[in-house]
Fold these 3 entries.
Entry 1:
Amino acid sequence: MKFKFAALIAATAIAPALSAVEPAIPRDEAIESRVEATLAKMTLEEKVGQMTELVLDIFGAFDENGEFQLNEGRLDTILSVYKVGSILNAPGTRAQTPEKWQQIISKIQEKSMQHIGIPCIYGLDQNHGTTYTFGGTFFPQNLGLAATFNRDIVRDGAAVTAYETRASNCPWTYSPTLDLGRDPRWPRIWENFGEDCLVNAEMGAAAVRGFQGDDPNHIGPDHIAACLKHYMGYGVPYSGKDRTPAYISESDLREKHFAPYLAAARAGALSVMCNSASVNGIPGHINKRFLTDWLKDGLNWDGMIVTDWADINQLFMRERVAPNRREAIKMAINAGIDMVMEPYDPTFCTDLISLVNDGEVPMSRIDDAVRRVLRMKYRLGLFDNPDTPLADYPDFASDKHTKVALQAATESMVLLKNVNHTLPLPAGAKILVTGPNADTMRGLNGGWTYTWQGKLQPADFNEKNTILEAMQQRFGADNVKYAPGVTYNNEGNYWEENEPDIDSAVAAAKDVDYIVACIGENSYCETPGNLTDLNISANQLALVKALAATGKPIVLILSEGRPRLISSIEPLASAIVDIILPGTMGGDALASLLSGDENFSGRLPFTYPREINSLATYDYKVSEETGTMEGAYDYDAVVAVQWPFGYGQSYTTFAYDNLSVDRSDFKAGDVLTFTVDVTNTGDRTGKEAVLLFSSDLVASRQVPDNRRLRAFDKIELAPGQTKTVTLTIPAESLAYVDANGNWVLEQGDFKMQAGNKILTVTCTETTEL
């Protein structure tokens, strides 16, 4: 399945008749029989209840000690009257201990079985590890995982997250996020696997298999249901602001934005969450073409679609496509929504029942939605075992899991610059660690970390190291000074900083050999993360410029959820490392890399912009070329950026040779197998992400993309070692979608490139797929 998603797109994007499409998830007759038997016994009220999801906060309150307590009377009332089938979120968006989650969710399951006879499906945003469980294992955010170009790391991290989420008695996570982060202004770019559709597709499928295991019909007690979000086109808002409209061409929708969802659905994902905003003027929650025609019917996918937070209400409050809630509910359910994350008002049920009784929502649509909800619960085994006791999960937060997170963090960090071998730092060096991200966990984790916005208290991670603490442990406390110069106002908005003290940092640099300046962003999430200026803050720019004036070599550490512009200070740094958002093990991983104990292997999964008026992705249209890009790793591109997609240095060097293909001429239905020899020509062991790109030299129906990533793999080589890497792609992956939505594999030449090696393959005939 590694490189076949493009062929799947070609085969299914035109939405053929349902019977002609193999089910995305194999049909299990035993499960279907149980679903039908349960459905046959249900009243309309019970069916509508299963389509309803409410937030935990309405079922209890915090006591005088700050501990959340369920109100059993309220729980009894809402479940008995409205028959609600799902509950979500952490109380006050604050993490709980595994023991507390066991107490809360087991009580909910007890009451659900008592009042409805159907288990509740509880959902949490476990987005980079156990987001909402205290003490659990945290991984890099998805953007950092993408930088590893290592599918195994993504799958292993998702498997650990699933295990530890089940330790909290929770069977469902709203992850992975597959929006395509193609606009660096957007505040949720770090939740995705970068700008490329293949990377998102491959990593998304790996995450689904990690969360759910290999059999989506029988998800065991160590796994959870995945939820792909936010379907689709959410990641490219025209304004760059969260939850605002996107305008996407038909070709980009089918060819790029749909690709990750197709691959992850084929991997067995049980649920999908909808886009909160609109695409081409149509809100995601009423887009029947996307929800039903493309996803459900087009893929013969029998999973469940849930709304995002309160988005039915936004159809009449923000989008103004409906005059009131009743009409909004009708539009969304008829378009293909199966479960509504209301999340506060259970009278949603009353409105939907009324719509059914009045004939405005057909019972067939209700039954279809409820089948999908019940099917997911049966696949999770919730009817047989609603609870998963904590005692069954002895590896929760274990050293074994921590090692997985450390490896992920290590491979996620990208060495962008290393003039005169500034790195690794020598033993015994005197080092100043400075900047607002030097001694904080917020800058390592980002949002969705114990709280929605990631506003952590120091004690939350008292056993984990900040960058400063890790540097002191690795290089010796006597060798590492600390003077931040700039600090965040952690009580304010994410961009707010305290009055700087740059002079103290400059003074501290007097007697050191190196300056490690940790700059970037404080944590944020969703709409509160909107910005008006992509440049790094003025205080941080001033800090780096003042430190550069000391003449000491600067190692610039970028800890940020999106690429903030640094073109004015990049020349001042001798070395630059983008650590993105590496999670709680990020401090240790960085110290091991800066010391040379480990080697860099990360590559940028996005294009790092140089200037605000030149935002671009690597797969730009060739007619967008405006000037020659600077730098040695430009792949002959002529769009000015700071660093290109796929860029990353190492402490060793690699040479490519003997790029070949088993057939230089091909047509639709063929499979092309490329091989290339990669040699470690340096003196250190290193890992190399081998990326295979294509360039369609002429495309008659639309301007071709400059280049596209078609396959990738990651290998490890000892000094002097050579490996032959094999990358296989279906011919259909070289097709494109024209302006009318038709897939076309067009006769002509394609330039294929791996490293600095290039060859040409030729399609011998044009085929409409």
Entry 2:
Amino acid sequence: MADPAVEKSPAEIVSEGQHNKDFKPPELTGEIGAPPVRDGMIVKGVTSAIKPHMAKPEIQSKLGFPETLVDNWEEVAVRKLGELLERYKSLQVYLDICVRCGSCTDKCQFYLGSSDPNNMPVARAELLRRVYKRYFTTEGRIFGKMAGAQKLDLGVLSDWYAYFHQCSQCRRCSVFCPYGIDTAEISMAAREIMDSIGLGQQYVNAILGKVHEIGNNLGMNPKALAATLESTEEDLEEETGQKIRLPLDEEGAEVLMVTPSADFFASPHVESLLGYAKVFHQAGISWTLSTAASEAGNFGMFIGNYSQMRKVASRVGVAIREMKTKRLVVGECGHAWRIAYSFWNTLIGPFDTLDPKYPAPQHICEFTLDLVKRGAIKLDKSANDEFTVTFHDSCNVARGSAMGDRPGGQFTIPRELIKASCSRFVDMDKDTIREKTFCCGGGGGLLTDEIMQIRVQGAMPRVQALNSVMQSDGVNFMALICAICKAQLTKVLPKYGIPVSVAGGVHQLVGRAIELGAKA
């Protein structure tokens, strides 16, 4: 134990957390609603001690952030907030227009799972809004607390570090806000401010460092990647009897495939990679992966840092130019698809070297479904007869992107592809899917074990909805199109007594159903 007589630094005071390994997950009652009031009152701060590890000095330095909390951190933080307000006019609007109507209060999975009212979206946003009022509004400077303003001190900063890392930036609250306030943007701003004063989060910032230095989130160097793909090709040939390739750095291929690095290594992610490979092989379309762009994910978004986002995305631009491909396809990753769809054109575009006949970028689900509809590949539903399938709408796909050439394609295209791959499909409750979908509980940079408690609690609404269709309809497979959802749910489902095998990828189903060698 630490010696209580030893004085702690301000950074240690702010980031110090308590990690309860013996916590129990919420009960699966079949109900998703506001948490019960305890002893006639709401208990505030029950998850205030759940905090991620603070980034090590060398990690901060690699990203150009202060190595530890700077001495004049209040001054620097206020100055940074001022810069963000000037750069992003929407941020000031969101901080100004909230009327505390309460529409968002019970819409956050972390509030529903943890019962901590600071995890109500409006309350979390108030942590920043009160500081904004104190330093940037006339009434706040004059009347202080009477005007809802608050000085940024260590106590407030400690709450920022806890609760802005108990937000997955899923934007579900925004769907229900009558003013359309994007609380995710407020969370991103708070994290960017904390990075600027030397209070970064270890998990996210370490991964950004790996991408800049090595090229992907896993830290897999080019030799390791090539060896992994070669080994996977051998496994594919043994399974199928056919030479199905996983090409790397092949100049002139028709398609550049950019996918999360988890697809190269982790399970069930790799099963979707095998599905992609089978689709390209059977359709006779040349494709390549790239060592330069061996990561679709972009954790720069999670800390709200545009320059980090652009630096990570720049690798994709390099790969497009080097590989001289005609098409750009993105694999199964939720936030990666949001960034690709919504930001790549300004981060690394324009894509004037790609073939204008095709969407740039294009989601792998849209790519594959088009082949199915044109008869270029055939799927045998009976290959998945052991499954009754449901689908989890990943939050960044559902609320931060689109897919295909029609409104709502991000909802219909994955479902159409699943239904083409299996005989039995069941949707979860209508209030838990599509634009109302609940986050898996691990997005937004929360996929780190020291905050496992809040991850499990945040997953509760999704698991409740899943468990309901498991009981009523015999669902035994939940299809996913997000690397983080796969990593989160395979870790969390067993804590609720649900087998890890229930979670898998859409292209895992496609890979089982595709008829290799069938004539189009």
Entry 3:
Amino acid sequence: MKKHQLKLSDIYLELKTDPKSGLTTDQVAALQEEKGLNKFDEEKKDTAIQRIAHHLKDFTSVILLAAGFIALYSAFMPNSPKGFTDAVVIFGIVILNITLAVRQEMGAEKALESLKRMTAQMTTVIRDGKRQTIDAQELVPGDILTLESGDMIPADARIIKSSSLKVDESILTGESVPVDKDANIVVRENALLGDQLNMIFSGCLIINGKAKAVVIETGMTTEMGKIAGLLNDTKKERTPLQQKMDRLCKAICVIALISGGLLFLLQSFFIKIDLIDRLMSSVALAVAAIPEGLPIVVTITLAYGVLTMAKKHAIIRKIPAVETLGSASVICSDKTGTLTMNRMTIQRVWATGHDPVDAQKKFNHEQLRVLEMMSLASNATITMHDGEEREIGDPTETAIIRLLKNKNIEKEELDHTFPRVHEIPFDSDRKLMTTVHKLGNPDGNAQYISITKGAFDRIPIDADSVCFDTAKTIHDEFAHDALRVLSVAYKYYDTLPESMDVDELENNLTFAGFVGMIDPPRPESREAVRIAKEAGIKTVMITGDHAATASAIAQEIGILSEGERVITGTELATMSQQDLTAVVRECSVYARVTPEDKIRIVQAWQSHDEVVAMTGDGVNDAPALKAADVGVAMGSGTDVSKNSSDIILTDDNFASIVAAVSEGRRVYDNIRKVLISLVPSNIAEIVVMILGFLIWKVTPLAAIQLLFINVVADGIPDLCMCRERLEPDAMKRKPISKKASVFAFGMGTRTVVAAVVFTIVSMLGYYIGSNFAIGNIAPSEAVGMTMAYITLAGASVINILNVRSFNKSLITIGFTSNKLLFGGICLSLSLVAATALVPGIREVFHCSPLSLFHWLIMIFMAISPIIVVETMKWFIRRKNPAAAAAPR
């Protein structure tokens, strides 16, 4: 049997403890040796050296390192004409890429440290028959705890006895209302955590009352410890972009190896050159295949997205999450504090003899009187502290006082006018609270009023009265709307009764009315859900709250539609993962779920290749936040949830998620544009190197020229592409599938066409420079290599103008509409020209002086990609006129 079902006597026997004297010192020492301390295991983290080593194993880094060492070896060869420039440039690129990657990753996970800080530092126990205050880490199963209001519970425990005990379990279960605990209640075997009313759990807070309890579990075996274990065991999936980039890089690396190997074999069989020169040429070709600047450009583009999102109240903890959120197809959202206000609020009030009234409307005397009596029978307060309101006490009571303040009535004034002379505290058995007050303005002969507040079914009303039938009907209407009902009744006294006990004060009452309250949806939630739906994103509610409450909120904000299912944690417990995966698309609301259930739901969606975003703010959300493709925590949430997340919303606004999604889509689109800009030049470089050797027995481009094109010439304008605006239709199209290639939707064709044009103009440049005398410059291999390099570099840089729009003409968009990009293109072209014009630099880049006519020919060939692509766009628009009108 489970601990919440066992008799207390059986628990004492099993744990070898005594409820009066507790454990002995020897027992504690033995148990600490056996069970360990009451703390969480720590997750081992990679050191900076390990992170660097991991990135050095990356194939791109290996190729570049090989090229660097060959260049370095060549520089040390006797009588070598080569200097150290090539080696320095190559090693510099490797260092820059790894530095950026490691700095990004050094934001280490801190979830377990936060969980440790949540454990109470000191607690009171009974040991050796004496009350002692000890470090909470020293607790062991069998210890007898004594707890009171305000205490943080240090371990999972079974209640021995309690008085008016209320516990805030929202960080564990997600339920926004404090739970009434009772040592004597009988709990069913399969009861969920939120329904185990004879148990208290580590990390939760005592809101009201006192308790004596026996420790059942400590450390990693507590419910909070299990969450810590889930955080350790849950592995973060690579983002969709990372997966696509991995596949692309593998393909590029295979091409690089094959191309380099082919060139090495061709040089070995057809011409006689030194081994070092053959290796350098082969490695240069491998370098040509790899877009070395791509990791830097992607990182900077994502980083700019981080800055933009910060202005929209979203702090990015892990840079790839920017793009991942843009690809999200499912948002699994916690209810409490995310979709709702996390603040109980009165929605409707009913006073006997009147119709129910919405809380926002003007109240009559009887309706105000219901609120005033409830306020007098409440112990909560709302005070001002440093200009901000601070609510202290039970959330249902603070809801009463808040509404009263909105009606311009202060609780302090009521308390002064009707001073309290007696109180019977709330009891979980009675579910009632009674207070007695002296009347400031006596009504007739009455001098005192007794006010009883509590559950509707516990306040004695004559079942034969008309009032009962009316009250029952209205109560059921409130309950149908998932409103939590709190009732109030009263009794007048001329003098105080001799016995002010329950039997006297809580019988023969006059029923006054009740209020209906709920933790309401955030005002912006409905619109955010609608926009998400329009963008092809399904919103799913996952909560620890009751099914009726969750369903009402979900229907109100548009999450739950007709025909969609609501599933409880009890139902989930009977379903296999395969069964859940089969029905997950039909379910929009999950209620009374555990942290393990949340992970199962996320994984069920992921098994359908959906990109899942999970939002939440409590400890119970942390494992699922980590398991999701992107975890979104609320800024006001626990440190545990924030440190397990990828993104933190500083304004706790669900609508900010939608804004973050749109920014993510902008970033993803811009990264695709960068790829479509970079890859054609890499393909062209490979073809030019191999065809050039087959035709002329030389490689038309040098390694340092290839690196300069890939990193500097292409890199500068591509970095500026991060500022390209959001496509107007971005939030009206479906999310891009995980399986979709970055070259999908016609981008592959565009890439091939550009690569063919680059190859033709580059080869033509080499042929002209090496075969024709122009001006006073004689033809030579050096002139041909210079023309091939300048033409390819210029065409590659100018091509970025083509990728700004898939259908619209560049003339329509405007050359300077993205001023930063236009400036980057001008700067890049200037630097390319400088490598061929400036003495000293020209020699480093293996360039030769050229005439004005050479430059005019190269300029014409460099702009040819714009002519070709603009012609393609014209044919697309002519074939499909809708494409011309469509947003770019």
